[in-house]
Structure formats: C-alpha cells, structure tokens
Automatic annotation (TrEMBL):
One of its GO terms (molecular function) is calcium-activated cation channel activity. The chain crosses the membrane at residues 17-35, 55-77. One of its GO terms (cellular component) is plasma membrane. The keyword Magnesium does not apply. Residues 3-78 form the CSC1/OSCA1-like N-terminal transmembrane domain. Signal peptide: none annotated. The keyword Cell cycle does not apply. This is CSC1/OSCA1-like N-terminal transmembrane domain-containing protein. InterPro entries: Csc1-like, CSC1/OSCA1-like_N.
Length: 87
C-alpha cells in the first residue's frame, strides 16, 4: 500500500536527517567546549558558552545551519522524486 511506503520513507528521512545533525554536532561540540565562555556544566556544550561580541566561533554555527538546511533540502527533494515515481 502506498501510504505505508510513504510513512516508512518519511521515518527514514527523519533518521537520515538526525544522522546529519549528529555529524554536525561532532564539529560544534568541541567548538562550544573550547570557548572561553563562563558557562558551567552541560551549558559548556551549548551555544550559550560562546562569548558575545564578535567571536569567530559564531561562524561555525552559521555554517552548520547552512549545511543542515542544504542536507534537509537535498533529502526532501530526493524523497519527493521517489514519491512521484510511486504515484
């Protein structure tokens, strides 16, 4: 049944995008952790640990956002093409 196939492929899309996010986090977490910010605990591994006022580390976050947007756009386009073949 096409509805079941679309649902399974949608779940696979979510898994693929989550894996992309995990790969990006491998880069971002060390950037956050090595920042000279004043956060403590788990907050050292977040954007809140970056210092305000022109830190070059913010560019890593911007690049990561564009990479994730591009990956999601590519994945959705590929799924759309597959869906059109299924119809």
């Amino acid at each position: 049944e096409p509805d079941a196939v679309v649902m399974i492929r949608f779940l696979e899309l979510g898994l693929k995008f989550s894996l992309c996010g995990m790969l990006v986090s491998v880069v971002l977490l060390p950037v956050y952790a090595s920042s000279p910010g004043s956060a403590t605990g788990a907050n050292r591994l977040s954007l809140s640990n970056l210092q305000l006022g022109g830190s070059d580390r913010f560019w890593c976050v911007v690049v990561a956002a564009y990479v994730l947007f591009g990956a999601f756009s590519y994945l959705v386009l590929a799924e759309w093409r597959n869906f059109l073949l299924l119809r």
